[in-house]
User: Fold these one by one.
Assistant:
Number 1:
Amino acid sequence: MKFTDQPIISMNDFSREMIDHILTTAEKMEPIALGKQKSDLLSGKILAVLFFEPSTRTRMSFETAMFRLGGDILSLGSVDASSIAKGETLADTIRVVNGYADAIVLRHPKEGAAHLASEFSSVPILNAGDGAGHHPTQTLLDLYTIKRESHLEDLKIALAGDLKYGRTVHSLCYALSLYGAQITLISPRELSMPEEIVSDIVTRGAKINEVEYIDDAIKDVDVLYMTRIQKERFPDPAEYHKVANKLKITTDSLKNVKKELKIMHPLPRVNEIDTTIDQTSHACYFKQAFYGVPVRMALLGMVMGAIE
Ligand code: CP
């Protein structure tokens, strides 16, 4: 299977066969991601890192992945210190960076920005999140986490929190539909999953149940995927404050759950998972953040043509 020079923009571009191949390749990368094995797979290659929005995990795990594979990083740094502050367009920035790097990882506040960038780029663009749109590399690491810590076949999963603006849950739903997962969507009505996404994923084979409260909805699930309310995407701050504290879990919420339940979160969390849960066997979110490294190593190796 060849991914050389392919942009990574949306999970809608991936078949189940392609996803399975990436997850298998990521598994082989784990010893290198952990620093137990050395690699020079991407020696001589440069990854440009263009982040127009804040990030810790996505940016640093891409950088770690590149360093662990012997490659180099070229960072735009702060947008305010770049020529974007003088009015340079995204298209021109991408055309220029094409002369400096072998691939570009881009995070941008505008939905569709990664797709637009790929139209002007001669090197592969990896979408690291475009507004409330897609975050495909997060989805791949989420699937990898589910595969490693639970199971992808016959999966019962609950997605809870901001399902309206949360791009990670949009991308994850599309991917889970390929595996025929039973998905429970838990959110206040104001933050429910957009209807067109629900309709799409049902057509693609997922079984969907929508509820407003967490309590009973997590009794039978294998995975609970919590999300942060995306404060920065609310047009009206008053609307954010109405829903800000509606979905939270504490150890009390977990009294009737399966022993094997895994709780995931793309992070950062605000207050939706009480820190007392961190010490339980259910907590999986810090491991999930690490799994971003082997998954992004696999993707970088593939799009830069170093592995198939
Ligand atoms: N999960 C995620 O995208 O985290 P960052 O915003 O820190 O990159």
Number 2:
Amino acid sequence: MTPEIRIDLTGGVLTMTLARPDKKNALTNDMYGALADTIEQAQQDRRIRVLLVQGDGDMFTAGNDIGEFAAIAAGKHGGERHVHRFLHALANSTVPTVAAVNGKAVGVGTTMLLHCDYVVLGQDSQLITPFVNLALVPEAASSHLLPLRIGHVRAFEMFALGEPLDAQTAVAWGIANKVVGNDQLRPEARRMAEKLATRPPGSLSAMKKLMRDAEKLVSQMHSESARFEERLASAEAREAFQAFAEKRKPDFTRLDGQ
Ligand code: COA
């Protein structure tokens, strides 16, 4: 398993730590693979009562590794794409999942929270969904889950503009449970995970299953993936990835929407 995902099982809580801080925990194919394996195995392992996800460094995650997006767009990424297995594992998981979000949660960093059951935000955290800014479309069934959670107009604004949502607003809108001081983030998330781990696991997972339509979520993920793959291959996306690599703003004015 890649060292960029650290796994620890203590007291029934399996913690998955995104550990690539020099790249702001941007998620690579190997990292998705490790997360997918862990979530899949947790469904079978009776020692695991709760999953907890957190990020090292100054932010939760900068989202998908953009270099890997560019490689896929250029047809240079061979082998299995574990992101799909990761997203389906999230949709199908019946293990209660807690998230501790420090700093920015970009792209899939925010959309994965819609699959978590208890979300704690640090006071400086920001949720950002810049899919359109990258000429892509939302994923992780967020095109269904986000409007359902916060209403169409707010979800449209978050997706279309990709501007940061602050922690207090995220709680007010129902994306997260609470905001705590940064130094309290991990202890608070851990405290909640341990509390959940004392509840009857069969009952918790049956409840979680009833609360989520996993089949609908996976079907939405398939629809999103089809659009996502088209967008990845677009001239707009090539310009967005190139601009990121060159540390400049993208210029979409010359492109005609194809
Ligand atoms: N993919 C690949 N590398 C990334 C990355 C990503 N999503 N996000 C950050 N990095 C890398 C940077 O390229 C930089 O690498 P370098 O040190 O080799 O130049 C390093 O991580 C630090 O990032 P930097 O941009 O200097 O940090 P920052 O604190 O100024 O800004 C972000 C952080 C997250 C605001 C900014 O990096 C960003 O916008 N990243 C892209 C986010 C994104 O669009 N993700 C995809 C969502 S679908």
